[in-house]
Amino acid sequence: MSKFKTVYTCKNCGYTSYQWVGQCPGCNEWNSFVEDVISAKESKPGTTPLKSPCKLVKLSEVSSDPLRRISSGIEEFDRVLGGGFVPGQVVLLAGEPGIGKSTILTEISKNLKCLNILYVCGEESIDQVKVRAVRMNYAAENMLMLSETNVDAIVLAIEQNKNIGLVIIDSVQTLSSDELLGSPGSLVQVRGCTQMLTNVAKENGIPMVLVGHVTKEGVVAGPKVLEHIVDTVLYLEGDSQHLFRILRTNKNRFGPVSEVGIFEMEEGGIKEVKNPSDMFLKQRMANSAGSCVTVVMEGYRPLLFEIQALTVKTSFGYPRRTASGFSNTRLQVLVAILERRAGLNLGSLDVYLSVAGGFKINEYAADLAVCLAITSSVKDCPVKEGVAAFGECGLNGEIRRVTQQDKRSKEAVKLGYGEVISSDNTKNILEAVSKSISR
Ligand code: TYD
Ligand code: MG
């Protein structure tokens, strides 16, 4: 009998089946099954005797000293990690191609002058990495380059060079091992290589960052299944039209998961943004109709955004409702609420909505600001200076509580928006309109 069996694994959730299926029974994703190989060695439970008895450890006797952290030199990156890298930690940095993963890792190497960094480039040539370093004004004296895709050679290099402080693998999808079946980039190869690298990082106590590409559907190409092998999964997000990038944690064995870090792509590298609200509100025009400031929670952090609305007479029989950075369906609901509960006549108007700066808001907390921006545009009267609004709008026109209202209010006041409209002081949309729009 063959030593291996072919199975099919869902690259979205890891569900396995002996037959190919179109839709995954685990996560309902379509066309997500790829061929995978598992060991066919059958063992009957209880038949393999253990060589030595298991040793039990009392949890109370385990040291509870705080973890030793190695700062990445970038405050925003450290915060997302929970304070910095932990020795032996394996971080998967995932993101779409071209989003800035290699750039952010070069920036970290530049900051960690006292550590030797092993940079394994499987994707780019050493010359290309050099060009990036020069562009970022980085002499790269602490960067040891290895142009290799064979994971066995990488493991050997890590074991032989004891002076390495951080390993960067760019990217994990290019790796392969002779000991594993399948072609480079296949599920078996990527998973096996990640496991081998994780083992060597843990044995040597070296933190390691693996770069993983994400496909359009948001799946770490092929192996979403990698996520359970590594300690921390970070996603770098953003769009090519805008310069800011958001770093989110999806999983973290050594810190919080809801933290976000905000960065800006610049000509000479990627820079952290210490005051993101300032950045998003910087270009706001004073006293313009159709604009309202809201406070959105990104992880544990309140951020201020400007919501812009434009209403124009429709040229067709069917008025358009178009949103960018906000859900179109939610916009339609809010338009209906405004018509019925605030007496606004939007039947003959096109409504365009945008979150200034290109950010995507997924929270209902922005409802109230969306309603006020639309009302302000229809009435052609600006929302009063110094007003920030947040709250979910119910179908009856009531304003509902959202999470962390105090934190949001404090942030708004801190940034000069002293008059906060929320469910704490306002019952319904009509009241919010009369408080914030003078006409
Ligand atoms: P890169 O880090 O190579 O992306 P990834 O590794 O995620 O595929 O970044 C690619 C983009 O970043 C590229 O379009 C150029 C831009 N960039 C800058 O804007 N400034 C810089 O200093 C560098 C090095 C790149
Ligand atoms: Mg890259």
Summarize the structure in words.
By secondary structure, the chain is α/β, with parallel strands linked by helices. It folds into 3 domains: 2-41; 69-274, Rossmann fold (3-Layer(aba) Sandwich); 279-436, Ribosomal Protein S5, domain 2 (2-Layer Sandwich), CATH 3.30.230.10. The protein contains 10 helices and 20 strands. The strands form 5 sheets. A 9-stranded mixed sheet has the order 6-5-7-8-4-9-10-11-12. A 4-stranded mixed sheet has the order 13-14-16-15. A hairpin with a 7-residue loop joins strand 10 (244-252) and strand 11 (260-266). The longest helix has 18 residues, at 187-204. It is elongated and about 80 Å long. The chain starts with a strand and ends with a helix. The mean pLDDT is 88. The structure holds thymidine-5'-diphosphate and magnesium ion. The site of thymidine-5'-diphosphate has 15 residues, from helix 2 and helix 3. ATP binds at residues 95-102. This is DNA repair protein RadA. Residues 350-439 are annotated as: Lon-protease-like. Keywords: ATP-binding, DNA damage, DNA repair, DNA-binding, Hydrolase, Metal-binding, Nucleotide-binding, Stress response, Zinc, Zinc-finger. It comes from candidate division WWE3 bacterium.
